[in-house]
């Protein structure tokens, strides 16, 4: 919604968008100037400089905060055209100048002629004097009295965004800064409204209505909580969650590209991808700069204008060349990079002008550095999206499938585990399932491991892998189990099977599994020095040792020691600056350096697995 997220940024927000005129590289006679970002709600006014081929700034800024603005030219007043009134999505082939058939009854000819004269007279009025025609059966045209604005949320170059109410519903209100009678402004509003009301997809922002009365230009949409910019710079949202959100956004953009005629969003950036409360929905918004590929005169004229947010613009967009659907692909790749790194693009390069950005991106081919710890599948995807040649970039249909591979790699580090999940729960590109019913998962896993699904060990796995009453196995929890007990190699020898390694640990009195630090302190409270338990660390794949000790003042204190581990590797911890390594946790708890004497009571797994089991007529005591 708008050029800004629907929640105002604080300390981590990028500075206000900056208006930049059309690049002189595309218009040799144009003078280009960048203005200093403003902190109030006033619109940034571009100023001309006498030197062509140059962009100046009043103070240093980051290019990622800038946004190009179309050059303001003095043009003679234009009369409304057929194109201005047509719907670029559904009516691009219709002729709006088509007149009614002359009536057969001569007595009605005078009335008919009068009606035609009134229609033709109306078409000679300026665009600014003509409200947007809403002909849908639903009430899209809203009165300014029906829209109650309550809270300022943020602003962009062309508009401000507010929280508000309309007909009792909480909404977002995009209010345009230019509320005058400029026909170009009304033309842009009409275009955005006509695009939005034609879009129906769960990953595209829901359009509710608009007020097109001059002086009260507003667009009303559903209200969202935050944007990708806040998600990218959050310390509490992990990469897996970010990739899942990215896939939802890609679905929305793919829908735009699949329409007939197709729509190029043209201004994809983190602020224009919004998230609902609780992360339940991801929606692409702000279609003010969108380009409808209908091969019309309007498209050809709009193609000449360099518009967008510079840090996210493709080389062809920066140079004013022909735009294609792959223009959005490039922008999406930069968004993925920001989600991965938590940084704004090109901030470290100290780019201070539009021309300098063009030199780096278009001439030198400079791209941001991808961190070394980036998952290989994600690195491959990002690099493919910002290739210089648009033809070589993937489509969004392909991106959706590649994001499935990225999600799999981040969620399940074990190669065999990824292969199992993809083969059975995500074989079709773009259709990866994040949750599977336990019964279905058990049948697939037991068949893969060549084990009976009725074995009691699988009940232990169920209690560990299912965190609520949903009876669903999530892709994350399966990946976490393999980090603790993997690798998931299929072997004829039981000791090499991850479920047997898990069973061996679950039968230990001192293993308490997925309890919190606070719960471990509660269980150890009142025990003797040397009492201990081992639990899962909050970092999947790692463990934690909690034990009761007696300090030098004879006080009993609970201490916690992290145990590092990688699938198939050793178990280690650091004590007094020295690293200790062991082949197994059983060997570790016997180490004299730890002084562990008595396992803490209360393990739910021990209580479950010490019961006698009967297999093929034999009694098997697990303890």
CATH first level of the domain at 509-602: Alpha Beta
**How much helix is in the residues?**
25-40%
Largest beta-sheet characterization: 7 strands, mixed
> For the record, what is the CATH homologous superfamily label of the domain at 509-602?
SH2 domain
Beta fraction: 15-25%
The end-to-end span amounts to 60 Å
- Number of DSSP strand runs: 23
Mean pLDDT: 79
User: Which term fits the overall shape?
Assistant: elongated
CATH topology of the domain at 509-602: SHC Adaptor Protein
Structural class: alpha+beta
Radius of gyration: 31 Å
Number of helices: 19
The low-confidence runs, each spanning 5 or more residues with pLDDT under 50, are: 1-5, 7-62, 64-104, 120-138, 612-623
Looking at the overall shape, the CATH architecture of the domain at 509-602 is 2-Layer Sandwich
């Amino acid at each position: 919604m708008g050029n800004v997220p629907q929640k105002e940024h604080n300390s981590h927000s990028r500075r206000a968008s900056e208006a930049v005129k059309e690049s002189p590289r595309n218009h040799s006679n144009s003078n280009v100037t960048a203005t200093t970002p403003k902190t109030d709600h006033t619109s940034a006014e571009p100023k001309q400089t006498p030197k062509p081929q140059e962009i100046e700034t009043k103070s240093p800024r980051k290019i990622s905060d800038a946004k190009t603005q179309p050059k303001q030219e003095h043009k003679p007043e234009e009369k409304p055209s057929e194109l201005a009134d047509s719907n670029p999505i559904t009516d691009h082939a219709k002729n709006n100048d088509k007149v009614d058939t002359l009536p057969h009854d001569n007595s009605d000819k005078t009335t008919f002629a009068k009606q035609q004269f009134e229609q033709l007279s109306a078409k000679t009025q300026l665009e600014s004097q003509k409200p947007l025609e809403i002909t849908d059966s639903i009430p899209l045209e809203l009165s300014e009295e029906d829209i109650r604005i309550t809270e300022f949320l943020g602003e962009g170059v062309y508009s401000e965004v507010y929280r508000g109410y309309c007909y009792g519903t909480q909404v977002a209100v995009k209010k345009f800064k230019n509320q005058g009678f400029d026909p170009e402004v009304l033309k842009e509003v009409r275009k955005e409204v006509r695009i939005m009301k034609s879009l129906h997809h769960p990953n595209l922002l829901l359009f509710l209505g608009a007020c097109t009365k001059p002086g009260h230009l507003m667009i009303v949409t559903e209200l969202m909580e935050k944007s990708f910019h806040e998600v990218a710079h959050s310390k509490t949202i992990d990469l897996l969650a970010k990739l899942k959100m990215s896939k939802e956004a890609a679905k929305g953009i793919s829908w735009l590209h699949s329409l007939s005629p197709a729509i190029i969003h043209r201004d994809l950036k983190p602020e224009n991808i919004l998230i609902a409360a609780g992360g339940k929905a991801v929606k692409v918004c702000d279609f003010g700069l969108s380009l409808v590929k209908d091969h019309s005169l309007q498209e050809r004229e709009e193609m000449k204008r360099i518009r967008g947010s510079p840090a996210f613009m493709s080389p062809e967009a920066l140079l004013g060349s022909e735009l294609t659907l792959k223009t959005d692909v490039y922008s999406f790749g930069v968004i993925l990079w920001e989600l991965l790194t938590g940084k704004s693009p090109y901030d470290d390069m100290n780019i201070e002008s539009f021309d300098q950005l063009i030199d780096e991106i278009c001439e030198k081919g400079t791209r941001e550095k991808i961190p070394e710890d980036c998952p290989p599948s994600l690195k491959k995807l990002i690099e493919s999206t910002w290739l210089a040649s648009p033809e070589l970039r993937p489509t969004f249909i392909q991106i959706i499938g590649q994001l499935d591979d990225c999600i799999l790699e981040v969620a399940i580090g074990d190669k065999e585990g990824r292969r199992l999940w993809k083969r059975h729960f995500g074989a079709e590109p773009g259709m990866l399932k994040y949750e599977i019913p336990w019964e279905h998962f058990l049948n697939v896993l037991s068949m893969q491991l060549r084990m009976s699904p009725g074995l009691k060990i699988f009940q232990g796995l169920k209690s560990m892998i299912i965190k609520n009453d949903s009876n669903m196995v999530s892709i994350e929890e399966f990946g976490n189990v393999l980090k603790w007990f993997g690798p998931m190699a299929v072997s004829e020898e039981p000791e090499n099977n991850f479920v047997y390694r898990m069973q061996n640990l679950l039968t230990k009195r001192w293993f308490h599994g997925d309890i919190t630090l606070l719960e471990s302190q509660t269980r150890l409270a009142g025990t003797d020095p040397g009492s201990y338990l081992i639990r899962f660390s909050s970092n999947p794949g790692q463990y934690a040792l909690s034990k009761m000790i007696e300090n030098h003042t004879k006080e009993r204190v609970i201490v916690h020691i992290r145990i590092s581990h990688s699938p198939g590797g050793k178990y280690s911890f650091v004590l007094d600056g020295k690293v200790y390594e062991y082949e197994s946790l059983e060997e570790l708890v016997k180490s004299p350096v730890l002084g562990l004497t008595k396992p803490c009571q209360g393990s739910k797994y021990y209580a479950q697995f010490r019961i006698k089991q009967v297999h093929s007529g034999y009694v098997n005591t697990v303890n």
